[in-house]
Amino acid sequence: MAIEVTDSNFDKEVLQSTLPVLVDFWAPWCGPCRAIGPIIEELSELYAGKVKICKFDVDSGSIVSAKYGIRAVPTLIFFKNGEVAHQTTGAVSKSSLKEVIDTKMLG
Amino acid sequence: MKEYDAIVIGSGPCGMTTALYLARSGVTVALIEKLSAGGLVLLTDKIENYPGFPDGVSGFDLVDKFSDQIAPYENIDRINDEVNSFSQEGKAHIVHCEENTYCAKAIVICSGAKYKKLGAKGEEEYLGRGVSYCALCDANFYKGQEVVVVGGGNAALEEALYLARVCKKVHIVHRRDEFRALAVYQKKCEEHEQIEFHKSFAVEEIKGDASGVVGVDIKSLKDGSVKHIPAPGVFIFVGYDPVISFIPKNLTHTTNGIEVDAKMQTNIAGIFAAGDVLNKLCRQIATAVGDGATAGFFAYSYLELYDEK
Predict the structure, then answer these.
(1) Is B233 in the A-facing interface, judged by CB distances under 8 Å?
(2) Could you give the CA distance from residue B291 to residue B283 in angstroms, rounded to a whole number?
(3) What is the DSSP letter of B265?
(4) Residue B213: which of B200, B225, B230 has the closest Cα?
(5) Multiple choice CATH, A3-105, 3.40.30.10, 3.30.930.10, 2.40.30.10, 3.40.309.10
């Protein structure tokens, strides 16, 4: 299961994580977010123990989304050692997400 | 390699209808989808032109209803995979996907369409940082601010009206003096005090800085003059591109989509296509559903005669 993160636990779960982290910034009203939802869950199982997969509901708070300039959902940000390693927007396929994880986060 | 009577590619309204018709005929169906079911419908807030819903229906709810309707059919295998290419072994068709390979006597391509890019300077650079193709998704990020909508079809005007609910002002930039959109949308936009038209203007450049989009330069197609609209958001709705990257080269198509006959049959025996992926003029949920029913019906006819051919 992807971990729900919010303004209050973002630092601990994402920035201080020893594992690379993928954060899915999403919203309940957003169709493409819903379209990639199952892929995000699948990735969390596929990369269990290697990459932490998190979901941030932009409706739940605005501090983190403002910090990272989120102006569209879904936006996926890949963090490595607390730094942004890659960022993508829109409904992307599982294969392209796997490629980014394998090359930019685990490579 | 798993074998089926038919493989349906894409589970938007068209693909789900095709699968429903085939399943009710008693054949085995693989319904392959790369994301979750729905397609472009999921980008629509309220659908008011799909019959049977006099009060309108949300895109999410309509997709759920389609999905619920095919759920009881055990002869439909819903597969989450991404199609890469086709090949043929005798009369059978092989569908090569990212994770697995599937085989069937007939294929129905219902992969739909995606929003077309404008091709303007700054569009790629500021994607997700001010450039959007989904008002329903991103309108809330521009609450009380000004935004630009590019396009003159139904989608552009419908989305402009949606944005006007939350934005201070919506600028519609359109290349022509007339709109392709239905009169009902034009009238609503013209009467809306927060919507301003910039007719016969084309986007010259989407401008931004480290924070994202800051405005759009538009150029008059009449006198060449350029004006700047300061706005942090640009929503682009300039038509659709069919999703056909995986189809065989010898399958007859144009850049606007796949060519079929009245039975939704392509030039290759056993390959059918339906819905938004076709070379067609009217891309609506109702037409996609109609195409799906036709394709399901004639794909089944093809299967019935398969062994005699």
Answers:
(1) yes
(2) 11
(3) B
(4) B230
(5) 3.40.30.10
What are the residues whose beta carbons fall under 8 Å from the beta carbon of B109, sequence distance 6 or more? Answer: B9, B10, B247, B258, B266, B271, B272, B273, B274, B277
Instruction: Tell me, yes or no, if A30 is annotated catalytic.
Output: yes
pLDDT score recorded for residue A61 = 87
Q: For position B219, what pLDDT does the model report?
A: 98
- Average pLDDT of span B80-96: 96
Number of A to B CB contacts under 8 A, please give it: 84
B128 with A30: Cβ contact below 8 A: no
ipTM of the complex: 0.86
- pLDDT confidence bin for B29, thresholds 50/70/90: very high
Nearest CB partner across the interface for B134, out of A32, A37, A88: A32
Listed in sequence order, the residues at least 6 apart from A98 whose beta carbon sits closer than 8 Å to its beta carbon are A43, A46
pLDDT at A107: 80
Distance CA B247, CA B253 (A): 9
Inter-chain contact A69–B59, Cβ cutoff 8 Å?
A: no
Q: A3, A19, A27, A30: which one is catalytic?
A: A30
Mean pLDDT of B4-30: 98
What single-letter DSSP state applies at residue B40?
G
Q: Which B residues, 118 through 137, put their C-beta within 8 Å of a C-beta on chain A? A: 127-130, 132-134, 136-137
Average of per-residue pLDDT across A30-38: 92
Please give the model's pTM, rounded to 2 decimal places. 0.91
B232: closest chain A residue by CA: A71
Burial class (CB in 10 A: 0-12, 13-18, 19+), B177: exposed
The answer, yes or no, to whether residue B212 has pLDDT greater than 90, is yes
A54 given a catalytic annotation: no
Min Cα separation B61/chain A (Å):
11
CB contact under 8 A, A89 and B128: yes
SS3 B170: strand
Contact B141 A38 (CB under 8 A): no
Least Cα distance to B142 among B116, B124, B114, B162 occurs for: B162
Which residue ranges make up each domain of chain A? 3-105
Q: Is the pLDDT of residue B88 over 70?
A: yes
Contact A90 B133 (CB under 8 A): yes
